[in-house]
Amino acid sequence: MEEIFHKINEHEQVIFCNDEGTGLRAIIAIHSTRLGPALGGCRMFPYKRIDDALEDCLRLSKGMTYKCAAADVDFGGGKAVIIGDPIKDKSPELFRAFGQYVESLHGRFYTGTDMGTSPEDFIHALKETNCIVGVDEVYGGSGDSSVPTAQGVIYGLQATNKALTGSDQLAGRSYAIQGLGKVGMKVAERLLEEGGDLYVSDINTEAIEQLHIKAKKLGSAIKVLDSYEIYSAHADVFVPCAMGGILNDESISLLQVQAVAGSANNQLLDIHHGKALKDRGILYAPDYIVNSGGLIQVADELYTPNKERVMQKTKAIYTSILNIFEFAEYHGITTVEAANQFCESRIEARTRRNSFFSHMKRPKWDIRG
Ligand code: NAD
């Protein structure tokens, strides 16, 4: 109880949303608006207890403050969770009700898709609020964010190679990729094109088949491993692109790689696993910097969407990762501690101007009936 109060107190605002008519039960947490309005996705999950939903929302919301600071976008951290089963509990009315709660925050919170929600869900919320990001281009959004996210992972891998070998070449190195979804598949294809050697794992056999075809076209081959074997692959870099919490006591003891750099969110089960990686001599590229390409895109969309500008901004991931590695080495701390300290000092150094919100507003998408 003490702990949860402490976490709530770290936040600027936490609201509980109940709408009897639609069955909406949600929590919106705004961790910080110091760098700008809070930005963070909306997750839908059948949490068993309200405490679990709250805990998840608070953790993710705080994480967004750091992620926004690292990506140097003018947003703070926030997050929403909807308590429900994404397979059977969704309805247009539920997302409209959610949109009304977001609108009631008057531009303090921008949201979009996360685990369990899709851009289509937010088309309904968009009828109630303009504080929605990441919907399809025809609705005024910036579309698929996995493109810049995957490009960001490539920059993260180049920076990691540079730190380890002195060269940022992707060719001639081996990579163990966990998850060939929207991000992982794009990363895998690019690494194959560049002449990387791939070990891959995915529970979806169609994804594996798709990559086999791509590899064949390029005259190369991939080595397929099961969900457990991927951790002990004899590769240079482990590239987690599936679920979070995969860097834990057991998996870290299995790793044979020199480094970890991938897109999955919250890869470390616990902060002390950053130290466990360091102790094993494994260089860790902090996930929230490596995977910030998608965030850069949705943050950018509130101006006039421009894909080239997004790709240009995403390039900064390369330098950020190298700076974090250097800072960690110099101070003898983990790369996660270095990244967190870097973000905290950036937040400290900034003051939000009162007029901030005015230039962020875009016209409400006019699709009301
Ligand atoms: P996705 O759902 O499209 O792909 C995930 C893939 O992982 C799927 O192919 C799935 O079959 C596979 N998978 C699931 N469990 C697995 C297991 N045990 N072993 C191997 N493979 C497994 O998701 P995505 O959009 O590609 O995102 C991947 C990760 O990157 C997630 O953690 C996500 O939160 C994070 N991320 C994504 C974006 C984005 O723009 N899409 C941005 C930032 C972070």
From TrEMBL:
InterPro entries the record matches: Aminoacid_DH-like_N_sf, Glu/Leu/Phe/Val/Trp_DH, Glu/Leu/Phe/Val/Trp_DH_C, Glu/Leu/Phe/Val/Trp_DH_dimer, Glu/Leu/Phe/Val_DH_AS, Glu/Phe/Leu/Val/Trp_DH_bac/arc, NAD(P)-bd_dom_sf
Binding site residues for NAD(+): G179, L180, G181, K182, V183, G184
UniProt GO molecular function: nucleotide binding; oxidoreductase activity, acting on the CH-NH2 group of donors, NAD or NADP as acceptor
Secretion signal span: none
Keywords of the record: NAD, Nucleotide-binding, Oxidoreductase
Active site residues according to the UniProt entry: K79 (proton donor/acceptor)
Top-rank taxon: Bacteria
GO BP, one annotated term: amino acid metabolic process
Cited CDD domains: NAD_bind_Leu_Phe_Val_DH (cd01075)
Residues in Glutamate/phenylalanine/leucine/valine/L-tryptophan dehydrogenase C-terminal domain copies: 146-355
Similarity annotation: Belongs to the Glu/Leu/Phe/Val dehydrogenases family.
Name used for this protein in its record: Glu/Leu/Phe/Val dehydrogenase
Organism annotation: Cytobacillus horneckiae
